[in-house]
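Sanity check

After download, print the first record. It should look like this:
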Amino acid sequence: MKLADYLAKHGLSHSDFAAKISVSQASVTRYVQGQRTPRPAHMRRIREVTRGAVTANDFIGTSQDNTGHGAAA
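Expected structure tokens:
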């Protein structure tokens, strides 16, 4: 499940979810928009908080990040 779908389904704002996974609201927005892929530690938190509904596979091919933290283009 895409992170955006999970947030909508559970009525969570980017800020609410950011607090749950200990990142900034801006980071969650970038994850949702496909501008950045979560680092491994944050991905583990996302998987834990969503109880497996959102996994690393859900971010494959969605990142446009050029910092080396995103998926390969």
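If your output differs, re-run the checksum step. Summary of this record's structure: Residues 3-59 form a domain with the 434 Repressor (Amino-terminal Domain) fold (CATH 1.10.260).
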